[in-house]
């Protein structure tokens, strides 16, 4: 399976950063055995698409409905209309701050698919949950309840992102990542049969140029969702290089 390296710019970026996005797309083109993309603020999608050529640009959330009385929200159809080809769904920052539930995330995934977008659906346990020995139960529960029944296939990726590793510089141990990704794979295959093998499982949480090679070598780690280290071409490039090398 080709590795998938996705940058999550979160609430960062203005028109002054379009040049950096173009730089990132240029380095991504040099790593042509890796799939990559940037998920950016909705305000920049249309201009970013014009700036980066064929490089995939995505959003970071979508509403579950196409239109209506939802002040401040952006639908999957709107993302697609702006030129996005994918979106993140269910990021832990939204699960926590916007109180998104598995049922919301499931509906958002269905909306993304209906709009023709690829989706990266995030799951992950908090530190308290891990320390209580509940990490597997929590994550497999999120996988069971937030993936729609039509999830199978290459349109969906699952991102395992331990909440305590996001933006903290603290990275999960490769052995723990291996256990979690194997459990997620088993759940996907249990539910979707052979099609469950095609769903890429990304790791996210303080991945950077120093640790990417080790993390991407873990079985069932099919790519990465990267926050801080995706904001510049200089930081993103070594991750792309590690992904390319892991497939050689
Ligand atoms: C993320 O935003 O999904 C993420 C993994 O962030 P960071 O790489 O900064 O930990």
Q: pLDDT below 50 for ≥5 consecutive residues: which ranges?
A: none
Distance between the termini: 12 Å
Cofactors and ligands: phosphoenolpyruvate
By DSSP (H or I, 4+ residues per run), the number of helices equals 10
| Helix fraction by DSSP (H/I, runs of at least 4) | 40-55%
Strand order of the largest sheet: 1-2-3-4-5-6-7-8
- What does the radius of gyration come to? 17 Å
* Quaternary status: single chain
CATH top level is Alpha Beta
Q: Please state the structural category.
A: alpha/beta
What's the number of extended β-strand segments? Answer: 8
Order of helices and strands: EHEHEHEHHEHHEHEHEH
Proportion of β residues?
5-15%
Mean pLDDT: 97
Largest sheet: 8 strands, parallel, barrel
Summarize the structure.
Helix content is 41%, strand content 15%.
Explain this structure.
- It is a single chain.
- With 248 residues, this protein is of the alpha/beta class.
- The protein has a single domain, classed as TIM Barrel, CATH 3.20.20.70.
- The chain is built from ten helices and eight strands.
- The protein has helices at 18-29, 45-52, 76-82, 92-97, 102-114, 127-131, 135-146, 174-192, 212-216, 233-246, and strands at residues 4-8, 35-39, 57-59, 86-89, 118-123, 156-160, 200-204, 223-226.
- An eight-stranded parallel beta barrel has the order 1-2-3-4-5-6-7-8, surrounded by seven helices.
- α3 (76-82) links the parallel β3 and β4.
Q: How are the secondary structure elements laid out?
A:
Blueprint: E1 4-8, H1 18-29, E2 35-39, H2 45-52, E3 57-59, H3 76-82, E4 86-89, H4 92-97, H5 102-114, E5 118-123, H6 127-131, H7 135-146, E6 156-160, H8 174-192, E7 200-204, H9 212-216, E8 223-226, H10 233-246
Parallel strand pairs: 1-2, 1-8, 2-3, 3-4, 4-5, 5-6, 6-7, 7-8
Helix pairs in contact: 1-2, 1-10, 7-8
The site of phosphoenolpyruvate has 14 residues, from strand 8.
């Amino acid at each position: 399976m080709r590795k998938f390296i996705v940058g999550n710019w979160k609430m960062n970026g203005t028109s002054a950063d379009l040049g950096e996005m173009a730089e990132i797309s240029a380095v991504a083109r040099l790593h042509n055995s890796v799939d990559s993309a940037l998920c950016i603020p909705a305000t920049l999608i249309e201009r970013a698409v014009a700036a980066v050529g064929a490089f995939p640009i995505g959003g970071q959330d979508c509403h579950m409905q196409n239109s209506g009385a939802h002040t401040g929200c952006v639908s999957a159809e709107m993302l697609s209309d702006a030129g996005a080809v994918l979106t993140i769904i269910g990021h832990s920052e939204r699960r926590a701050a916007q109180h998104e539930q598995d049922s919301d995330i499931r509906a958002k995934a269905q909306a993304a698919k209906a709009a023709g977008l690829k989706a990266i659906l995030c799951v992950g346990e908090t530190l308290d949950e891990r320390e209580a020995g509940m990490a597997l139960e929590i994550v497999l529960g999120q996988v069971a309840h937030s993936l729609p029944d039509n999830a199978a296939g290459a349109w969906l990726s699952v991102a395992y992102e331990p909440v305590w590793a996001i933006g903290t510089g603290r990275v999960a141990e490769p052995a723990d990542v291996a256990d979690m990704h194997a459990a997620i794979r088993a759940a996907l295959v249990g539910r979707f049969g052979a099609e469950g093998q095609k769903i890429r499982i990304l790791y996210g949480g303080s991945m950077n140029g120093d640790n990417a090679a080790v993390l991407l070598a873990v079985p069932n780690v099919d790519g990465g969702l990267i926050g801080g280290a995706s904001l510049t071409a200089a930081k993103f490039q070594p991750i792309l290089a590690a992904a390319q090398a892991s497939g050689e």
